Predict the structure.
Amino acid sequence: VRWARNKNVTGYQVFMKVHVKGFKTSFNRVKTIKKNKITGYRCKMLVRGMKYSYRVRAFKTVKGKKIVSPFVTVTAKAK
């Protein structure tokens, strides 16, 4: 998954959810990227034909506190 760089943030948080028919699944954080120059994440353990959703949000650290943006979500099947 890729996104546009935002120079005004500290980094990004990436969450992933696997869709399993008949089961309710939830998002889990898979990566915290602490450099705003990195604008993508690749999971190497996807199963062909499975459906995955990713949520990404930016964060900025101000005086030791994390301020987060709203999530952007994308869903796709692995090829």
